[in-house]
Records
---
Amino acid sequence: MLRMRRGCLGGCANTGQLVTLLLVVSVFAGGCMAPRAAPEQVISPMIPDNNPTLINNRWRIVEATYQGNPVVFEAVGPIHIAFLPVGTLNINADCPPGGAYRMVAENTSQYRLYSGEFAPMLCGEPIDSQFDQVMNILEDTTRFELEGQRLFLLGEDGKITLEVDNPP
């Protein structure tokens, strides 16, 4: 199937031929390997497709606490969180524009957040540091409780309280 000139591996004048040969061989070899199985996702209400309350609403942070102490974020203004059906949590404010986390469910009420794409914080102080504090608490959360129009994201040291805040 593959033909190679005799002596090419030992001293081809054109190393591009060798690179091409190696790429072709790796493609054929890769086709013989079993594909890696994706980690199995636990069916959970934290996966937005399984909980319409999460994906059909926009959530506004109304309170954040760290180690029992309230975190101030009034300079930032309203901070919103949205859960997308693809397992993504988006966070944004007027400034900074925010970003997204990939969300993986652990069970019916626990999850892990993995950092994704974020816009740089260039809003100035105290906005940047206040938004950063809220982001640190969010990254610490690992479980949730949903009570009517309120959502609580809970972590070892922090808690974020959100309310439904749908645009008109």
Note: The longest strand covers residues 58-66.
---
Amino acid sequence: MCTVRNNTRFRSVTVLVGLIGGLISALRLWLGNSDSLNQILWAEDGVFALCVHKVDFLSCTADPFGGYLPLAPRLLAGITGLSPLSAWALVANIVAAAVAGLVVAVAYAILRRGGMGQVVSVLGGLTPVLIPIMGYEVIQTLGSVYIPLLYLSVLAVVFSHGLNRWVVLGLLLFTVLTIPTAVLILPLVLLRWLRRSISLSTFVLWSTGLAAGALVQYLAIASSTKPRPIEMGSEGFATWANSLLPAFMTNVPGFGTGGGSPSVSPSIEQWSLGWLVVAVLATVGAALLLLGWRSRESFTTTVGALLLTGLLFSAFPSIFDGVGNRYFVLPVMLWSLAILVALDGLLVRSRWWVSGIVIAVVLVLWLPQLPAGAFRSTPAPAWSDEVARVSAACKADPALSERIMFTPFWPPNWGDALSEPTHPNVDCLVVWKWLD
């Protein structure tokens, strides 16, 4: 009876936390601009839905974009594409809020089943929608759903206790088919096996899943019409190192970048500070892993693993693809979670007011930055205006081929860097069919 009651309470709290997460996600965009929910159709969220209408769902799902296969955004675009053209912005934002709620619920469930206390589980679950850096560009963006997917995948491996290994395999495979850098989770899988937290068969299963997904991504990358340019130089390393501390400091009001990339000018002083931050994170993470290994303290190993994984996931895209604030969202989430996990033992053993202080500190730091930044929340152009523009142009000349523009005035150069069928070009005869 007690187990049934506890399971019922766990499911109820999971659903509640997920609902709150979905509402927060939509609220952040609305607080940034009250017209945003029905007027912003963000970049890939729009062009992916457009692709489905121009050809078909399966062809678009298999079409590489940005040099790789983004499975999750392609699947979600199919939902947006089912609605009338004029409602695409609203539907995409509703879907994004639902996805955010699901991510929050799953993150909470993983942490709770993984042995974390209620406070850390709730705050860690809500991190994907509450953390300030999420509001610069990523919040409510289906095209960037790979970030919360990576967060869930890291959590599922680190807190795998009590999780079905086949469910974790499915999550890992889905994530790597959405973003190829998910293969960087392999060291975590190896760590879990070396610590005997998972069996050899589970290690082989998860590693094979990640490798299989990476192979599919390699084939997609090789067949991409517009391959992603990749460059590596000393400037990339320096800029990455310089960006780590400013990225994490977005957690504190007044230290944010106002929507820009969390980077700093590479002066000699900042260059030295950047590499010092890298050295500290790497040393502390490795030391905690070693201490946990010797003492068998799982939370120490977990904190070290989260610190090092965040460092790894910040390095690869930044060094090879240039610095952008979205590349630092996952690392900041993992580092923030590491702090919460380090406090979990204290919170569980202490009186309620200690937990109250921690919750209050988090809210004081994050709530002032709840509204999404202007870059993310400003319609550019407003979706209703763009639909009206394309409709008027096609009415004047039905033989035209129009190019639809999405927020934030995307794609640049009217899509010259894109290729069909994932391209903003559309025949007016097709537009009229949608409007009818």
Note: The chain has a mean pLDDT of 89.
---
Amino acid sequence: MKNRECPYCHQTVSLKRCLKYLLRGTDYDTVCNHCGRSIRLAKEPKPGFKYSFVMGLLSIYIPMQTCLYVFHTTFVEALICALPFVFVSIAVAAYLTLRSLFFGGDI
């Protein structure tokens, strides 16, 4: 089975429906946009969520602390310097989560 494929009609579920899993979590089912049947995730996309959460925080915390203590910037300047790392870590986490979505049938 391919990534984001409906188990009934074997068409790819739209990205719009899959993006809801990033915001709401994985404990609900969705509807296939082709056949209209209810589908759920076969398993949790990333079982090590707490590890990826900690790595995301560290990828933001370390650049900010570097700006504060090495470059002697103010808090706001350090926060602005850390913002690109925030966007990159969110984008990488979203990509890895969407890449590992596999749907099963009704549960």
Note: Helices lie at 15-24, 49-69, 75-99.
---
Amino acid sequence: MKNPLKTAMVALAALVASAAIVSAQEEPPAKVPTITVQKVDFKTVQMPNADPSYKWAQTMIDFKVDPTSDFAPGTFLNDVKMTLTLVYDKTATSLGGTRARGNRGKEEVNKASTEAGGTEASKHTSYRASVSFNALKVSDGKKQYAFYIPGEIVERDKEKMVGTAKPKYYFIEFEYDGMEIGAFDAQGKKRPNYVDSPNATGSYIIKQAADFETVRGWADAGVSETRGQLIPYHWVPGFGQLKIGVVPSVARPEIQQ
């Protein structure tokens, strides 16, 4: 004799599974906007209202929102988050209490890395910061935003931040409507200027999505060590005196209501 409770439970499970399949089939594909990164530029600059002895490292990002069949000219993308990550080789001077450079500096970094487990993250210094733009208008031309590493850090790590302070690797990510718009699209194609290794001669070069995931893993494991040291444009001293292009307004979540 069949157990009526068991029969009812089986029927209910089948109904739930069927509903889930129908729901998945009816869910429309996500509409991904086209945010083009036109250029990423690195240089060191004298910062207003900061110690004049030091120049800060500036990363300037030129970008725009292009129209698509889903995003017509004149419409807006609301609450778009931009995240910049920079990865440098670690210096002995960043470990504190040492001025060692060259081969001796490498030995100290390798020793510290071994003590930390010998991971790639322990051999690099990674910086990360994010901002959220209130709204970006489609087909509204080039926008710019900049991030800065303080001059004291640039001076401390000048062995690896020489000249324009180019990082070993950088990557840019956007987030819109819960979707990540990253270095590679859904087909595995590299988005221009979203990721690069401008100062990684003779080392790990990012060509494919798997390469990128490896480098991002190093950064993810290390950025907590430098929290607050990559500073968005709006938060640096004297930002209003810095001459850059058209900057979108940035949301300020610290404002109380």
Note: Residues 4-26 form the longest helix (23 residues).
